[in-house]
Amino acid sequence: MSKQFASVLVAPEDYAKVSALSLPVSLIVAQASSDTVEFSDGRGQALPLDQVALRAIGRLPLSSGGKAHLAQLAKLWQSKLDADAPAEIPLEMVDTADSRAKVLEWLVAELTKAQQQGAQRSTRFMRELGLLRQQHEEIQASFQNLEQFVYRHGPQHRKLETTLSPVAGQLPITLRNGSRLIERLPGSSVGLSDIAIQIANETPPAEGVLNVSLQSPDTSETLAIWQVPAARLTQGWLRFSLDRALGPDTISLTLSLSYQGTETIRLASAVQHPEPRFHPDLDGQPVETLPALQIWRWIAGARAPVPANAVIQVGGKNRLRRIERDSLATAINLETLHDTMPMFQSGDALLVHVLPDHTACGVLAGLALPGMRQVFASILTRHPEAPPVEYQLALLPQEQRPHLPGRLPAFDPALASGWIRLQPEEEGQAHVLPPGPLEGPHDIYLMTRLPQGHSSNHYGWSTFSNICLQF
To answer: Could you say which of 317, 340, 361 is where a domain stops?
Structure first.
């Protein structure tokens, strides 16, 4: 405890005498009245009570008036702070030659006591800090376990919050070689997990790359970068995903798109924004129409499986992808090769209604991407009066897709789950584990059939859901 913080309370009439003792602590003058007390340092500068309470270690009277003055202070201290006033230094009120020595002796004992108490407090605080760190680590571990559980088994779908749909008749925004478009994103940044733009090109460019980045002008930080080769710039929504949703701190966001390549990229246009600060900037010129845009959100700072058809950020970890509803609804009916399979009425599963005389099959085109190590799907017949149903999940290279309707290809046994028989409303899973990571895009085949000896498919509401790709 230094001189700056260790202080002694003195009465105004004793200030000169105490100053003459040249004590190694500062002095605080306490001016007490019937119901108030004021404090000041030796230069007359007022001191707040909270600061005095931290610094004062004793009261030093050197006269009978000073003793009465400080006694009055002790009563006010007790009434205002509900605590005992600093102890009185036991010194005879006579001017003796050894007054300074006696005061120093008391100060040494008091400061030693304060130092010991401070060491004890520090030890206790260190112990409590260790316990807090342990509890924090346990909380973090519990949260990570919860996050991992939700990541694999919970309500995994990132939630679509904002859609600026293309407006018929609006001219598209054209990106030429070297063009750069900067757009301020609407809404809050909290929990943002995905962004999609709509490509209006009927055919992709022959070559080139679209560079996309998410930035915050508040922090001058680049939050994510995506690179899209020209072959993926086909007509429709192009979705960019983050490994983790953005955190709970609100920041401004801008989306930057730059194109290098042959031909041009056209972005579908949405509404015209009346506020100039939201107008996109194309090569330094404002554009009144906003690009068509979709924004998804998830739990702030948490992970969720990446959609199967999304572009992952540069440096992102392609761990688990999930085939979401919009992709599931594109499953091709192998019976016709033109129609799509219906979704079950709940909207969370694909209905591959079992047929009485042959195998029913839906095809998810090209969604098993290169590098995939496992695909699995939940299977369930959703009616208690349904017959037993056999399910199979299989992979086939995209270039081997049948060209004739109704023709079921011959699957490599290493790329098929085998037939799994389930009773009505019995939950199950089908898994395919290739011998090694896939080298090219594969189609996913979802098949159902009746077991031998069964001929009726009434109420055969056989469904596939929660289809995930592990990388």
So the answer is: 317
